[in-house]
């Protein structure tokens, strides 16, 4: 499967926190996420329009939290055309966005700067976000 994320040239970046040997690199995580993302893990306002051929749609916040938890670095947020927000990561000085495909498919331009760094605690403070994050972890375990 062709990789479809921003920063894929850093796909062999190794995770910082120990875990499942099948999930050691960003590439490993991305391949599993393609199957683990689902309608129920998408942001609530995105769920009605979620389709399997665009699995990253509405998954940015929980994915950025997961990447942070596994690989370290930082979480960042930008505003995109249409007024929405988008979350992604910075690891070893490089932007990593495992959910960029949702914008590429619809030709929505994304510029990673300027951006604001977000605390992990902020990203996970919403009860629904935590619920979707936990569901994503469960689905990842089922996939691997």
Can you offer a commentary on this structure?
The protein is of the alpha+beta class and 144 residues long. The protein has five helices and four strands; from the N terminus they run ααβββαβαα. It has helices spanning 26-36, 60-71, 101-104, 120-123, 127-143, and strands spanning 74-79, 85-91, 94-96, 116-118. A four-stranded antiparallel β-sheet has the order 3-2-1-4. Strand 1 (74-79) and strand 2 form a beta hairpin. The longest helix has 17 residues, at 127-143.
The helix/strand series, from N terminus to C terminus, equals HHEEEHEHH
Provide the spatial order of strands within the biggest beta sheet. Answer: 3-2-1-4
Computed Rg: 14 Å
Q: How many β-strand runs?
A: 4
Mean pLDDT: 93
Oligomer designation: single chain
Helical percentage: 25-40%
Characterize the largest beta sheet: strand count, sense, and whether it forms a barrel: 4 strands, antiparallel
Question: Which structural class is indicated by helix and strand composition?
Answer: alpha+beta
- The percent range for strand residues is 5-15%
Task: Report how far the terminal alpha carbons are from each other.
Answer: 17 Å
């Amino acid at each position: 499967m062709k990789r479809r994320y921003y920063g894929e040239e850093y796909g062999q970046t190794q995770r910082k926190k120990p875990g499942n040997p099948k999930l050691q690199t960003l590439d490993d995580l991305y391949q599993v996420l393609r199957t683990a993302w689902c309608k129920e893990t998408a942001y609530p306002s995105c769920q009605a329009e979620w389709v399997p051929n665009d699995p990253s749609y509405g998954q940015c916040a929980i994915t950025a939290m997961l990447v942070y938890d596994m690989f370290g670095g930082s979480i960042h947020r930008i505003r995109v055309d249409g007024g929405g927000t988008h979350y992604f990561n910075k690891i070893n000085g490089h932007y990593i966005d495992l959910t960029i495909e949702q914008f590429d498919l619809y030709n929505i331009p994304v510029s990673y700067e300027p951006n604001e760094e977000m605390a992990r605690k902020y990203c996970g403070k919403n009860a629904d976000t935590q619920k979707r994050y936990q569901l994503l972890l469960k689905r990842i375990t089922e996939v691997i």
